[in-house]
Design brief:
The chain is of the alpha/beta class and 344 residues long. It is built from 10 helices and 18 strands. Strands 5-6-4-2-8-1-9-17-18 form a 9-stranded mixed β-sheet, sandwiched between helices. A 5-stranded mixed β-sheet has the order 11-10-12-14-16, covered by helices on one side. Strands 3-7 form a two-stranded antiparallel ribbon. The chain is globular, with a radius of gyration of 21 Å.
Length: 344
C-alpha cells in the first residue's frame, strides 16, 4: 500500500515530521507531491519553518528542492513567495506574520520550484491549512520544521508521517531505538476518565496545572503556568487521594523526576499531557519512568500513518536498507515502514 492510500478520503491535513535534519523529510514530501499529482488530486503545501531552498542556510549543503505542478495551493511568507520559481497568483494575504513577511496563500500558474515557509504557531498553521481546503485543495501537506514534532500535533493536522534515517547515529540500533521511542509516544493512550476530560478544558483555558483527587475534587495550581521548574512544589501537594495531574504545557524529565522524589504516591497518579508533542523525555529516561511505575497518558492521540526511512547519512556512512526497515518493523507494530526511494 502506498503512502497516499493511507490517508486517501480519510484525513485532509497531513504533516511530515523529521526525526532530524537529513532524515528524508523533504524526500518524503516530494514523493507525496508526485503521487498526488499522478492521481490528479488538488492539494496545498505549507511549512513550519522553511523548506525548498537550494542550499541549507545553516549547513550550506545542497537540499532537495520542492517542485510542484500548475494548480497547487501554497501558503508561504511574502519573501519566499517572491523567491519561488513557479509563477503564482495571490489567493489571499492572511493576517499571519513571520520574520519573512505576511503569509500569502497562492496558487501556482506554472509548474516549477517553490519555497515554503508558513506560520510559526500551531493555530496559524491549522488556520491557513483550513483556508486552502476551503479554496479547493483536497489535501494539505504540512512540512514539519527540524526537531519540531509539534507539527504532528492533532491541534494542527489529522495525521502524520515520521521520517527517520541513518543520520541519527552511526549505530543502527540507536537510530531504531530513538525512532521507536518517538513512535511509541505518538501511540500513547488517550483513555482518560470523564472527570479528567471535563477538567482538561479548565486546564487549557487557564494554562495551569490541575491536581485531581479520587472524589473528583480538584485544585487549579494558580501560578504554575509552566511545570518546568515546579516539579517539587507540585509533588509536595500530592497525597494518597491524588489520582491525576493535568499538564496543559510541556512535560519534561526534570518535572517528573522532581515529583517522583517529592511524593511517595506518584504511582497512584495519571500524568496527563495534551499530546505527545508536548512530552520531552529521552528514551533512557522514559524506560526508567516506565520501570518505576509512572503512568503517562495524553488528552489527544496522534495518528501515525507511516515511518519513512533514509538509510544514507550525509557523513558518508549508510545502513543496509532492508535490515533497517526490518529492525524498525520489529519495534514499531501496526505502522507501515516505507522506503519511498525503493517504492516499498
Amino acid at each position: 500500500m502506498g503512502l497516499y492510500q493511507l490517508f486517501e478520503n480519510q484525513y485532509r491535513i497531513i504533516s511530515i515530521v523529521g526525526m532530524a535534519k537529513n532524515a528524508g523529510k523533504t524526500v518524503t514530501l516530494n514523493h507525496l507531491i508526485e503521487v498526488l499529482d499522478a492521481n490528479h488530486v488538488s492539494f496545498g503545501l505549507t511549512s513550519i519553518g522553511r523548506d525548498g531552498e537550494r542550499q541549507d542556510i545553516v549547513t550550506k549543503t545542497d537540499k532537495p528542492m520542492i517542485y510542484v505542478k500548475k494548480g497547487t495551493y501554497i501558503a508561504t511568507a511574502e519573501m519566499l513567495f517572491n523567491l519561488s520559481e513557479a509563477k503564482m497568483a495571490v489567493e489571499e494575504v492572511t493576517d499571519h506574520h513571520t520574520a519573512m513577511g505576511r503569509v500569502i496563500i497562492g496558487r501556482t500558474l506554472t509548474d516549477g520550484y517553490v519555497q515554503i515557509g508558513g506560520p510559526s504557531t500551531n493555530l496559524a498553521v491549522n488556520a491557513v491549512s483550513e483556508k486552502m481546503l476551503e479554496k479547493g485543495a483536497g489535501y494539505v501537506l504540512v512540512d514539519g520544521a527540524l526537531d519540531r514534532s509539534s507539527s504532528a500535533s492533532p491541534a494542527i493536522t489529522d495525521a502524520c508521517i515520521l521520517a527517520t534515517g541513518a543520520v541519527l547515529s552511526r549505530d543502527m540500533a540507536k537510530a531504531v531505538a530513538k525512532t521507536a521511542h518517538r513512535a511509541s509516544l505518538f501511540a500513547l493512550s488517550h483513555d482518560i476518565d470523564e472527570c479528567s476530560l471535563r477538567l482538561w478544558e479548565v486546564a487549557e483555558e487557564t494554562r495551569n496545572v490541575i491536581l485531581i483527587d479520587s472524589d473528583g475534587s480538584h485544585m487549579v495550581m494558580d501560578g504554575f503556568r509552566t511545570a518546568l521548574n515546579a516539579g517539587r512544589s507540585i509533588g509536595e501537594l500530592i497525597d494518597e487521594n491524588t489520582r491525576a495531574l493535568l499538564f496543559p504545557g510541556a512535560l519534561t524529565t526534570k518535572t517528573i523526576m522532581e515529583i517522583v522524589h517529592a511524593s511517595q504516591y506518584y504511582k497512584n497518579i495519571q500524568f496527563i499531557v495534551g499530546d505527545a508533542t508536548k512530552i520531552f523525555i529521552e528514551h533512557s529516561d522514559w524506560q526508567y519512568f516506565m520501570r518505576i511505575g509512572v503512568d503517562i497518558k495524553v488528552r489527544y492521540g496522534i495518528r501515525l500513518l507511516a515511518v519513512t526511512v533514509n538509510p544514507y547519512a550525509p557523513a558518508g556512512y549508510f545502513y543496509d536498507g532492508a535490515i533497517f526497515k526490518a529492525a524498525l518493523a520489529e519495534r514499531i507494530s501496526g505502522v507501515p515502514i516505507v522506503d519511498v526511494l525503493e517504492g516499498v
